[in-house]
Every structure is written in structure tokens, then in C-alpha cells.
Specification:
The protein is an alpha/beta fold. Helix content is about 40%, strand content about 20%. The strands form 3 sheets. Strands 2-1-3-12-4 form a 5-stranded mixed sheet, with helices on both faces. The protein has a 5-stranded mixed sheet with strand order 8-7-9-5-10, with helices on one face.
């Protein structure tokens, strides 16, 4: 017959064994649930910049915070925009970043954007052109990035006026557009104001390109991380992002990330 002391020892051993099994199974569960979420786009600072740099873009920093807290890892890679959309649509990647809904209307979008994009028109230093709606662009050589949406109004104009539009593609598309503008190979360029300002400083040409006046306001566009329509977990990832960015806002972490890039919350 087991003594009282032996019974107590056996009980302690059983409890420790159960605890160890619990830790092991919880660990295995976490490994099963953990995913590598692949995000692709071309460089579009300050929203998304160079992978692995101290400032990879505030959208990327938000995504990393959100998904790592949910137990996942994030892999961010630079891919020319039109190719990024195509590959992600096929399911080769999980998401694109820096997207308007017009860029990929078939993708899965979170309920929360991670910024607001304000488009502006640019010309070579000394250019006096004034934007008065899309009709004022007729006959002007306009440089745009292939695959980008510039909002419904501009997109419609580009469909019907391709003759005077140069569609530039590749990882350095915006840099090439700026140099074409300065060289006089195009007359106008349209880009998000935050992105253009940052790029001009980055390549050392802030005084060679000017933001042009406008009598017609460009529509501000919400900027999203958008998930592949051909990956089963995309809806789940979109919901995770929605919850995560709201949590970051409440905790004050979102404001700290934005401050790093010289920005403020957009709402």
C-alpha cells in the first residue's frame, strides 16, 4: 500500500507532467497558427520604403506590429507595382501595400486604411501650368506609373487619352519620371504629395520640380494594405489588420510610428 508521502509525490509528478504537456501542445498550436505573410509593392515612401532599413515605411511598421502580435511573421519585398498586383492576385503573395481600392477592386480590403493620399500635379521648375480639371490636361505630355490608380477622374482621363501619356514601370519608376520631367521629355507628372516630396529630397533634386497650382481639387484617396482574392486566409488577415491598427491607435503606438516619419494621424 502506498504511503501518504508517496501519494503526494505521485500527485505532484502527475501535475508537472500535465503542465509540460500543456506547454508543448500550446507551443505546437502556436507553430501551426503562425504564418509568414508576404507583402509586395514598389517603393512608395513614406508609406513603404526599403526593406530592412531603419525606416522601411510607416505602413510596413504598422503591418509588422499588427501581425507579429497575432503570432505571424512579415516578409516585405520590393516588386514593380503592376507585377506586384498580378502576382498577388494569383496568390503568389499575400498582400500589396499602398493600394487604393481602384488599384485592385477584387482584392480583400480591411475596414481600416493606414493613411490618406493627396495627389498633386508637378512640373519642371518654371512651369506655370494650372490644373483646371482633366480637360486642361488634353494635349499635355503626362508621366504616370504603369498600373497605378490616380483616382476615378484621372483614371478615366488616362483611358481615353493614352496618346499623350507615358506609362513608366520598374522599381525606380518615380525617379525616372522626375528625371524625364527635368529633361523636358514630359511636361507634367502626378503623384501623392508626401511621396513626391520625400523622393525629391532623397535624390537631391528638391528645387528642380515644383508643385503646380490647381483650381480643381484632387480627390483624397484612402491607402490600404490589400489581400489576395485567391488565398483562403485573406479575409482573416484583413480582419486581423483592422483589429490591430485600432489597437495601435488606442495604445498610442500608431502615433509614435507616424511621428517617426514626420506625420500625424489622418482622421
Amino acid at each position: 500500500m502506498a504511503t501518504q508521502k508517496n501519494k503526494k509525490g505521485l500527485l505532484v509528478y502527475c501535475l508537472l507532467f500535465v503542465a509540460m504537456l500543456s506547454v508543448i501542445f500550446c507551443g505546437l498550436s502556436t507553430l501551426v497558427l503562425a504564418d509568414e505573410i508576404t507583402i509586395v509593392a514598389d517603393v512608395w515612401e513614406p508609406y513603404n520604403g526599403e526593406p530592412g532599413s531603419p525606416a522601411p515605411g510607416y505602413g510596413i511598421e504598422i503591418a509588422v506590429q499588427v501581425f507579429e502580435k497575432a503570432g505571424h511573421t512579415v516578409k516585405y519585398t520590393i516588386v514593380p507595382w503592376s507585377r506586384a498586383v498580378l502576382r498577388t492576385r494569383k496568390g503568389n503573395h499575400n498582400a500589396i501595400i499602398g493600394a487604393y481600392k481602384e488599384d485592385a477592386p477584387d482584392f480583400i480590403f480591411p475596414d481600416e486604411e493606414f493613411g490618406i493620399s493627396q495627389l498633386a500635379l508637378y512640373g519642371k521648375k518654371g512651369c506655370t501650368f494650372e490644373y483646371k480639371g482633366t480637360k486642361s490636361l488634353i494635349g499635355k505630355e503626362l508621366g504616370v506609373i504603369k498600373g497605378y490608380s490616380y483616382g476615378e477622374e484621372i483614371d478615366k482621363f488616362m483611358i481615353h487619352n493614352k496618346k499623350n501619356i507615358q506609362f513608366i514601370h520598374g522599381e525606380d519608376a518615380l525617379t525616372r519620371i522626375i528625371k524625364m520631367l527635368i529633361a523636358g521629355r514630359i511636361e507634367l507628372a502626378i503623384e501623392d504629395a508626401n511621396v513626391m516630396n520625400r523622393m525629391l529630397v532623397k535624390i537631391g533634386l528638391p528645387d528642380q520640380v515644383v508643385r503646380l497650382k490647381s483650381k480643381s481639387n484632387y480627390k483624397a484617396n484612402r491607402v490600404y494594405i490589400a489581400f489576395s482574392p485567391n488565398i483562403a486566409k485573406s479575409k482573416e488577415y484583413a480582419e486581423t489588420f483592422t483589429r490591430g491598427i485600432r489597437t495601435l491607435k488606442k495604445s498610442g503606438v500608431l502615433d509614435k510610428i507616424l511621428k517617426k516619419y514626420g506625420l500625424k494621424y489622418w482622421k
